[in-house]
Amino acid sequence: MHTRRIGDVEVSAIGLGGMPMSIEGRPDEARSLATIHAALDTGLTLIDTADAYHRDAGEVGHNETLIAKALASHERGTDVLVATKGGHLRAGDGSWSLDGSPAHIKEACEASLRRLGVEAIGLYQFHRPDPRVPYEESVGAVRDLLDEGKIRMAGISNADPDQIRLANEILGGRLVSVQNQFSPAFRSSEPELRLCGELGIAFLPWSPLGGISRAGGLGSAYAPFARIAAAHGVSPQRVCLAWMLAKSPVVVPIPGASRPETIRDSAAAVDLVLSAEESAELDAV
């Protein structure tokens, strides 16, 4: 497994996004555990989760609990960096809300610590800016958690360039990751990706395979992914992740999965080398 860095930690170049295993349409627990174990078997050492990854009202942190169970029952479970998030909430009816107050973030972190069964969370990320709370106050709470040793590394999610710079300043230069949406269908985070490259901060694309399900359609804008995939004898999804990895050494995609075969295919993207011409063609999609 090829590796990259988040802060001072070496992780697999591809991570596993846990969200599909806990929200609407999720599989049964046995298949979810098999999916996480399959990820570990391929050499993946990064799993992304959040306390808001749950379906029903009474199961906040469902995904964190699931991941803790999977890691405890696998021989490589102790080798994994678990990245979780706080500040986003679900009511249990499919809706999302925000609470970026320092009190909530600190309470959420304590609850995540209990569910994950660890003394310190490997990577804790402020999930999404709350317009009702000054950004510096929300990130300041994450800084406090870092200073107190409750978390080992700090990150932010769904941030713009100004927020990245501000967060890094508030954290005293200790911001290690930015998790933003980025995919063939969602390119607006290119400025954040470039900034992370300049600052040496890991960029974790969430929902990285957006648009690829339409790659095989006649006339689809994403058809080049399918054509290049056919030339290499691999899936368009694998090509998509290889394209992202080639964009910058700070990129660590975290594709979601709920089937063992899906994450195995994603993990194999680290071994797919695209030509400069292929990467340029995909950049132009």
What is the structure about, briefly put?
This protein has helices at residues 29-42, 62-72, 102-116, 135-147, 161-170, 190-199, 223-232, 236-247, 260-267, 276-283, and strands at residues 3-6, 9-12, 16-17, 46-48, 81-86, 88-90, 96-98, 123-126, 154-157, 175-181, 202-206.
Q: Keyphrases for this structure?
A:
285 residues, alpha/beta, 11 strands, 16% strand
Round the Cα radius of gyration to an integer and report it: 18 Å
Low-pLDDT residue spans: none
Residue-averaged pLDDT: 96
- The secondary-structure element order is EEEHEHEEEHEHEHEHEHHHH
**Major sheet characteristics:** 7 strands, parallel
What is the molecular shape? globular
Q: What's the number of extended β-strand segments?
A: 11
Strand order of the largest sheet: 3-4-5-8-9-10-11
Helix content: 25-40%
Would you write up a description of this structure?
The structure is a single chain. This protein is α/β, with parallel strands linked by helices and 285 residues long. The chain is built from ten helices and eleven strands. The strands form three sheets. It has a seven-stranded parallel β-sheet. A two-stranded antiparallel sheet has the order 1-2. Strand 6 and strand 7 (96-98) form a beta hairpin. It is globular. The relative contact order is 0.14.
